[in-house]
Amino acid sequence: MKSYIIVILISALLISTLFFALPKTEVLMPFHEQRFDLNRKNEDYWKEEIILELNIEPKYKTLLEGKVNQAKNVLYKRLQKVGVEEIQIVNYEPTKEELENRIDIEEEAMLKKYLKIIVQTTKDQSLVNRLITSTGNVKIMEPKENLKELSDEDQFQLYMEENYEGTKWDRSKFRNILINDLMAGDGERSYFGVFKPSLGNKREFSKFLREREGEEIGVLMDSFVIPIQVTPEMPNLFAVGIGPDKNEAEVQNIILNTGVIPAKNISIFSSQQKEADIYEIDHIQVTLTILISIISILFFLYQREKDEKEKILQFAFSLLLIFSISLTILKIWQVPVDLFLLIPAGILGTIFVKKMYTCPTESRMILITSVIVSALMLIFGTGYIPILGNFILFIILISFLTEILTKIYFKHIKIINS
Amino acid sequence: MEITKYLELMTSYQINTTIVAILIIAILMTGLFLYHTNDIKPSAIIFLSAILVPILTGLFLLILYEFFNIQPSEKHTLILWTSLFINTINLSMLLERYSKEILKKNFDIDHVTKYHFTATLNLFITILLITFAVSVFVQMDMILILSTTLLVSSIVIWLNHLVARLLLKDK
Hints:
The complex is a heterodimer of chains A (418) and B (171).
Chain A: H1 2-21, E1 39-40, E2 46-56, H2 64-81, E3 86-92, H3 96-101, E4 111-121, H4 125-133, E5 138-143, H5 147-153, E6 164-170, E7 174-183, E8 189-197, H6 202-211, E9 216-221, E10 224-229, E11 239-243, H7 246-257, E12 265-274, H8 283-304, H9 309-332, E13 336-337, H10 339-358, H11 363-380, H12 385-417
Parallel strand pairs in A: 1-13
Antiparallel strand pairs in A: 2-4, 2-12, 3-4, 5-6, 5-9, 7-8, 8-11, 9-10
Helix pairs in contact in A: 1-9, 1-12, 8-9, 8-10, 9-10, 9-12, 10-11, 10-12, 11-12
Chain B: H1 3-7, H2 12-37, H3 40-67, H4 77-101, H5 109-135, H6 140-168
């Protein structure tokens, strides 16, 4: 009796998940208002070509190429951290016409360098623009003598860089700026950037703050100065308020901790919307062809390894469960997917599961190395690779569950047959 | 062919992280092989095999960009990582079988090479079948990624087998 119940339950799981996983089955659902189709990212993609103008200080004239490369790396890291799918950053030389059309507000002689950034992503456009136009530099500044009079007339003067004088304390003197949620003065939780001075500067920074206890200083972030009054606790913990918004805190974390773009300021020289380059996939046809090819593989295996028939059947059952459970999860939770990535993920998933079943003696090593390569995809991969790594790790995880279910299923089928 | 023209499309950060990841895979597989078999020659080959994947991928992509007028795209990195994954699975099978076989009293290297041949053939047929089946219904850009992946992985896994057979035959 117990065997019958287990076999019925596992069969029910397979049939129901298969029903969800197959394409177009959502039209058969009784509740039509609910979306059950795969949540494709295709419509959310946008592509833009942005020309950035970097105003680099003349003191870097001999190191210009290195500084531009540094800027490219920092920009790439930032965009990658938020998960921008396609990024291309190259040097750019504007034409004479482009330069003539530009309304130049030149305050001081700066070395101008241009970068062409092509992004294709589903992420928020304003977020991308913010990440590429922020230098990421932070400076601790001291107010000029006339700031009090100016701020009495106009409160905004308190936030203007020109009303402050720079100190030697900029981003390079700090190891990192740790973004943490702490209790604010009003009892509410809020995000703060905790400045961690590098080892050699710790004592000197504490001394700097102690000397200014009770006075006002300013912290320049994103071209605005945040005025701060130095309290007795600050020499031990110097924190700048970022606000209660979690998204804003995450953006600041990326900007402040991915390096500094060595430019006085960055502006968008020009930008142009482009048509997103998306691989259109008919997932119904692809699902069917993958199914046909898997059946062909099974047939091939069945012919070659006649004494391993049960293993092959287990592999087929497990593979069907993995794909139906994975697609069901993607459909029910409406996980946004790049359809074309499902093809390499499906191929690698099939190879992995097939090897786990047909080469049981090597399965331990295959599992270890597969997990490591997938983890490396997540950590070191760029563009679509971390998404693929995630998919494969997800398939590996589901394969554990299906292996247990498959073994239980076949064990109880045997009991019923005996 | 101007390699630098294509390298300029990538930032040094992107190139460096990819190199680090490939080196980690190569060193890890070599380390595992050396630890389990204590045999330096095949371990060195494992290292070269892992390094060969990006070289071959780069070479094929260069041919495609130069002679077939294909535009470079971030999507082409899929070729490298998918081939690396397939190669790692193939090497894992060789490693595990070889390390188990050398522990046996009646050690016969033919058991390892014959087994690896079957495993490589199975792997090759699997990727060949799925790639061909899927390629019928996808657009040209995707076919390009799939066929280049098939080509790179097939060359590398068969080279793995051939080199392993040559190196291990006098054991």
